[in-house]
């Protein structure tokens, strides 16, 4: 990059930076003409160009004019490609009378740079005299008041012409608290032989600090509609055309009263009762309580009505002394005014007291001490003592303790027993440690699963014990079943007179049982087996004869005719007996 | 001294120590009750909390709840009444106190749970366990003694059916119990935060006594769900009291 180009860029950047700094400006100017009529307002503009966001400057006090901030606007301009932005703060300047209003040179500091505007003048013509339309005044009943005293103050507007629109009047009041307010508008009064309209706004104010305090001025903003002078005498100078052609002109007229000085003094300390807590006025006190027949710890609802005239807003009851024997809980209060400003009325207090001793026989509240600004002396408002019957507490668990229901709020305890705390438990009971619930512990599921598992195991064990030991046992078991089955078949055949079947079944049973006894499968044994195998094993002679007879009977049956019933029964009995005898021989060598 | 005598002597000594200790605790409990009756709430709370180091009982938690309630600390009172209810679910007085404390916080707070239940979860769990043991014992006896077998088999079947029914009820009780709020806010400055850090943005200021569900735990913080506002967030453990399931 050559040196000429560097120099060119340097100059350009320097110029831009310098422009942005040198471009900051601050100008004071009138929005419209520099001349207004008395009673009219002019709009002052403070224009900050290329200064960024600037907070509205506070104007210095300006003689013979009322100033009021009217808002902010922004303006962006591009002239010949040069961009500039302005922040404009607007102020309403209302001259108090004819003459000249001077806005002095104003100096503000923007981003460390001091900017100064040139002074401005506003020529105020005579215009019209607002006093010709109406006057605003402040009416205070007395000039000496006491701290805490509430007095009525009226703003009176006396006028010849009704304003088209109006704002509620304002009253500057340092050292006072505003109370209730009433308004009375538009009635007519005869003043110095002239019928004039009168509007009045009355409010209760309470002095809160001592000293020579200034009340006011009161200000009242109105809008009046005048017939425009420009059209007067013209061809359209007519109310009908005026409403379409702008023949009427609206003008804001502000009325201001003179302030009033009040001498505010605190109530004297001499003769001040110890219970005095700042009540100013004149009061009476009335006390009721319910129930009055209670046990220690039971709540008593006490209602106190304070009637009279004075400052009720800050009025509070003196506290019970610590040794009163009652425990007091925060209560509620309400005020019922009997006049529009609330200077007179009834303030009701409701509070729960809990007797702590069974020796209490009456309820006496401390008197309400007040300063009477009219009589200029202190007074005491006392309620009568209420007889009480306080029994020892029935609740042995909390002797002397307050009823918990009373502690739960300021209202008297409800009668529903579900809404009261239950008494203390006197026995500690068995102490336990917090452990995880059993359903989260493994042993529980083991204990649940063990019984069915034990049943399964037991059943399995029994089956195992009863099962056949090997194949021979299984075969033996089946052969025994065969013997039993043949004996059953034998009986059935005997009953049905089927001799051949009966003999065959008896023979099969004998042959099978002999096979079991002799350890052989199947076989066709004859009576010789009796002598050769059974007698040596210990078969009794009688049983041997019977068995022999069976063999013979079986042989006979093949060739003889049908046997008698008696014969078949005998054969059946002998066969069963023979089988039993053979079974006895099992296991013998 | 023989071994048996030595064992009996040791048992008697241990029993005596236990009895003396229990007597001391009851004495401390009486003293705390006296403090509460005299309106010395802070002292009563301190004394009850001293006994808590030795163990818990429904009476202890109930009375501690009363002390908190009467001193205006409703959140801790709700927590203590809930602990008492867990230990003694059939105690109508504890239930009444809990109901009153909850109503004191907000009429709108509704808490699902086993307020109507009269058995603890452990008691529910032991019922089916007893039934299955009775069923098994009856069956075994019926097998071993064929003469009374038919009667005992009837008992076994009845107890088996009872086991199924009670098991279902116990499972339902467990589900309900575990759906109850696990935490009670015991500090008035408790806040629900977006993340488990003290400097995290506060989502919601929790009312003292509000009951919350635990969703997660991280260090000293609980991730909780507030059923009243239907919002979830983190709270420090020191501003809540955990109510164990029992």
Question: What is the count of helical runs of chain B?
Answer: 7
What oligomerization state is this entry in?
A: heterodimer
Largest sheet: number of strands, sense, barrel closure of chain B: 5 strands, antiparallel
State the helix count of chain A.
9
Architecture (CATH level 2) name of the largest domain in chain B:
Alpha Horseshoe
The arrangement of helices and strands of chain B along the chain is HHHHHHHEEEEEEE
Name the pair of protein chains with the most residues at their interface, and give those residue counts: A-B, 41 and 53 residues
Percent helix of chain B: 55-70%
Give the integer mean of the pLDDT values of chain A.
80
Poorly predicted regions of chain B are: 107-114
Strand content of chain B: 5-15%
Question: What would you note in describing this structure?
Answer:
The complex is a heterodimer of chains A (589) and B (246). In chain A, 25% of the residues lie in helices and 37% in strands. Chain A is of the alpha+beta class and 589 residues long. Chain A folds into five domains: 24-125, Immunoglobulin-like (Sandwich), CATH 2.60.40; 130-264, Immunoglobulin-like (Sandwich), CATH 2.60.40; 275-414, Immunoglobulin-like, CATH 2.60.40; 436-466; 471-584, Nucleotidyltransferases  domain 2 (Four Helix Bundle (Hemerythrin (Met), subunit A), Up-down Bundle). In chain A, strands 11, 13, 14, 17, 18 and 19 form a six-stranded mixed sheet that branches. A six-stranded mixed sheet of chain A has the order 23-24-22-20-26-27, with no helix packed on it. The longest helix of chain A has 25 residues, at 442-466. Mean pLDDT of chain A is 80; it is low at 14-21, 230-244 and 394-418. By secondary structure, chain B is of the alpha+beta class. Helix content of chain B is 58%, strand content 13%. In chain B, a hairpin with a 4-residue loop joins strand 5 and strand 6 (231-236). Classes of the chains: A alpha+beta (589), B alpha+beta (246). Chains A and B meet through helix 4 of A and helix 1, helix 3, helix 5, helix 6 and helix 7 of B.
């Amino acid at each position: 990059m050559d040196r000429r180009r560097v120099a060119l860029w340097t100059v350009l950047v320097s110029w831009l930076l310098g422009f942005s700094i040198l471009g900051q400006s601050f100008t004071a100017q009138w929005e419209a003409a520099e001349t207004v009529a008395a009673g009219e307002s002019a709009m002052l503009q403070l224009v900050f160009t290329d200064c960024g966001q600037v907070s509205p400057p506070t104007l210095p006090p300006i003689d013979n004019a009322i100033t009021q901030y009217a808002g902010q606007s922004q303006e962006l301009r591009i002239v010949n490609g040069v961009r500039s932005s302005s922040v404009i703060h607007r102020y309403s300047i209302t001259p108090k009378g004819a003459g000249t209003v001077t806005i002095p040179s104003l100096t503000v500091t923007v981003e460390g740079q001091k900017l100064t505007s040139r002074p401005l003048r506003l020529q105020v013509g005579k215009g019209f005299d607002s006093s010709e339309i109406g006057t605003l005044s402040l009416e205070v009943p007395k000039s000496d008041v006491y701290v805490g005293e509430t007095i009525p103050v009226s703003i009176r507007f006396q006028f010849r012409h009704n304003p088209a629109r109006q704002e509620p009047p304002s009253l500057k009041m340092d050292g006072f608290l505003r109370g209730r307010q009433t308004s009375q508008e538009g009635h007519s009064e005869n003043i110095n032989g002239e019928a004039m309209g009168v509007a009045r706004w009355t409010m209760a104010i309470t002095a809160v600090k001592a000293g020579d305090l200034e009340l006011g001025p009161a200000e009242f903003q109105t809008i009046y509609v005048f017939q425009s002078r420009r059209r007067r005498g013209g061809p359209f100078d007519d109310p009908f055309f005026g409403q379409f052609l702008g023949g009427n002109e609206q003008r804001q007229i502000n009325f201001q009263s003179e302030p009033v000085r009040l001498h505010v003094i605190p109530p004297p300390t001499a003769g001040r009762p110890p219970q005095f807590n700042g009540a100013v006025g004149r009061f009476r006190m009335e006390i009721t309580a319910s129930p009055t027949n209670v046990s220690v710890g039971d709540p008593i609802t006490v209602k106190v009505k304070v009637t009279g005239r004075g400052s009720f807003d800050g009025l509070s009851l003196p506290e019970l002394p610590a040794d009163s024997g009652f425990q007091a809980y925060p209560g509620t209060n309400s005020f019922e005014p009997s006049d529009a400003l609330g200077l007179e009325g009834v303030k009701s207090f409701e509070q729960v007291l809990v007797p702590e001793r069974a020796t209490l026989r009456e309820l006496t509240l401390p008197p309400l001490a007040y300063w009477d600004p009219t009589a200029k002396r202190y007074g005491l408002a006392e309620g009568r003592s209420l007889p009480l019957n306080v029994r020892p507490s029935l609740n042995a668990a909390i002797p002397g303790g307050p009823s918990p229901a009373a502690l739960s709020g300021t209202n008297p305890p409800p009668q529903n027993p579900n809404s009261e705390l239950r008494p203390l438990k006197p026995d500690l009971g068995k102490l336990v440690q917090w452990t995880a619930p059993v359903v989260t512990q493994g042993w529980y599921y083991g204990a649940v699963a063990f019984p069915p598992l034990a049943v399964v195991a037991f059943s399995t064990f029994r089956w195992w014990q009863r099962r056949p030991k090997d194949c021979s046992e299984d075969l033996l078991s089946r052969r025994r079943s065969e013997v039993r089955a043949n004996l059953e078949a034998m009986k059935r055949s005997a009953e049905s007179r089927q001799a051949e079947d009966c003999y065959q079944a008896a023979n099969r049973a004998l042959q099978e049982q002999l096979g079991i006894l002799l350890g052989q499968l199947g076989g066709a044994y004859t009576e010789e087996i009796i002598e050769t195998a059974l007698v040596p094993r210990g078969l009794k002679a009688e049983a041997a004869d019977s068995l022999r007879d069976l063999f013979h009977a079986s042989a006979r049956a093949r060739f003889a005719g049908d046997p008698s019933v008696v014969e078949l029964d005998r054969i059946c009995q002998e066969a069963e007996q023979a089988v039993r005898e053979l079974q006895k021989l099992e296991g013998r060598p | 001294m023989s071994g048996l005598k030595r064992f009996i002597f040791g048992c008697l000594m241990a029993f005596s120590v236990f009895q003396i200790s229990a007597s001391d605790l009851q004495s401390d409990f009486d003293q705390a009750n006296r403090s509460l009756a005299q309106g010395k709430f802070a002292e009563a709370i301190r004394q009850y909390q001293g006994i808590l180091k030795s163990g818990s009982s429904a009476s202890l938690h109930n009375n501690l709840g009363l002390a908190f309630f009467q001193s205006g600390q409703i959140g801790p009172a709700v927590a203590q009444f809930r602990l008492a209810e867990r230990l003694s679910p059939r105690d109508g007085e504890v239930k009444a106190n809990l109901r009153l404390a909850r109503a004191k916080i907000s009429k709108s707070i509704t808490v699902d749970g086993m307020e109507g239940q009269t058995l603890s979860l452990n008691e529910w769990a032991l019922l089916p366990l007893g039934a299955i043991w009775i069923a098994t014992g009856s069956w075994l006896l019926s097998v071993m003694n064929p003469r009374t077998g038919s009667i005992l088999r009837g008992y076994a079947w009845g107890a088996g059916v009872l086991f199924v029914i009670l098991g279902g009820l116990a499972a339902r009780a467990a589900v309900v119990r575990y759906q109850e709020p696990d935490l009670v806010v015991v500090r008035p400055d408790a806040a629900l935060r977006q993340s488990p850090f003290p400097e995290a943005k506060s989502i919601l200021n929790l009312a003292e006594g509000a009951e919350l569900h635990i969703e997660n735990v991280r260090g000293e913080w609980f991730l909780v769900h507030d059923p009243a506002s239907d919002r979830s967030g983190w709270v420090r453990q020191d501003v809540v009291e955990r109510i164990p399931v029992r």
